[in-house]
# Entry
Amino acid sequence: MPTRENLKLIDFKKVISRSSYGRGSRCSKSLWLHRNRSKNTRSLPNEGKLIKLASNQLVDAAAQLFQTEPFLCARLSLEENKDWDASVAATTAAIENGETVLANPSFYGNDLMCDIHYLQKNKSGSWKAFIVKSSTKVSDNSKEKATFQLHTLKESGLKISHFYFLTINNKYKRAEKLDHHQLFKKTDILPTLNKLEAPLKATIIKLRKTLTLEQAPEIPIGEYCLSPYNCEFKSNCWKHVPKDSVFNLRRVSRETKFKWWNNGIQTINELQQSKYEAGSLLSETQGEKYVDQLGLTEFMSHIKFPVLFLDFEAYLPALPPFIGVKPFQIIPFLFAAYKCESIDQPPSFHSFIGTPKKDPRKQFALHLIEKCSNVNSILVYDPMTEKKVIRGLIREFPEYVVELEIIISKIIDLAIPIRNKQFYLPAMKGLSSMKHVLPAVDASNNYNSLSVQSGRAASQLYQILCDEHHDRNEEQELDNLIEYCKMDVYGLVQVYNAFLKALGRPIVSFN
Ligand code: SF4
# Structure
């Protein structure tokens, strides 16, 4: 372990951290650009930050697995915001002071740097390492990152006897008190990581060379630009990609698109002239507006006023927050609705959002029943989540089975005419998700102006608000969540209006 004095001598420009290793192993150009970026460059996308922050509660909960209360070396934070200097110094001091269980310790060795969720000292002086995962299984990507952590711990001078992944036992059902020993599954993966260490060392050598380059390495675009997040340097590296590139094609795997691209087939036009059989895809993505008047009329005949346009948001917490709940069980916390009494009356907006940290389900059910009474049709886009949530509410509150079953029976899926090709616009590019359909039916509206831009981000944000340590403006964030859900449900009205227009009928007006 470095001393506090020689920590000051570390040249952090040369250091490879766990996230810079992950970045560089996917694309060395990304590592170079990130290390040499201007301060204004966009960092991890908002959704990625929310996911990381939401997982902090689970890591904190795993502290209960140790008989001794872990010594907190640093609060969990995003790596880019971390004060590495202070956290390595705090870890060094904790070890010198004889602490035996460390929470979030940070290590430096041989120009490598990492933190880890927990370390526990054995009597022999070696250490057990622990990584908490918000999943039931561990991906290859997680194993690679863990190998980097193992290697860095060794380089910093620690002897590691076991390396555990703490994953979630999704069979566990919460009683009044959370039983952390039943919730977490402990698996020692040290033998696997030891085997992965040799290729990891070879990658580190390559990354060290990248960091010494005067200019960014030439790396062609690839799938790594898009996964796990859109790379922040994409607008620069993808400048040469034409507007009508094969990447615009939908329902084609990324792998296939990059195969075409790498074989010189870059535009949809070139694909049409090529040997590749993609004609059906092209006719769909470049096709004209299409309306099946008979089919669409038949679909619309099932919709009866008053109608309710309805959308839910739910989260799936790894830590069961309430009695009787299993890990990753769906918990609804928000719905938004526009109620329309008749086609010539403007719709009225309604919403319900739970109070963070309290079980929202009963209030959600009661408000839903109230808003759905006195309507004949409930219009939902792709109602799989909504139906699953309502069935869960029936199991939880059987006293409301009649009212909730009636709600299910009134649901009509507005995505049906789009999925069945009874209504199609070229701007949908063959996709039927609301995020693609809404801009196609109403170009003036999209999610870019919103603080929350996806259902996933909404559920992560709500989970963060359920953490007693969160530092968010709760009232503001709850409003942001409602705004997001309102946009989804506004989209439903616009889709319905697009169908009405296509049939030459009057539409729902907000004025
Ligand atoms: S956009 Fe692609 S090629 Fe460019 S730095 Fe990012 S991952 Fe690398």
Observations:
- The first strand starts at residue 16 and ends at 17.
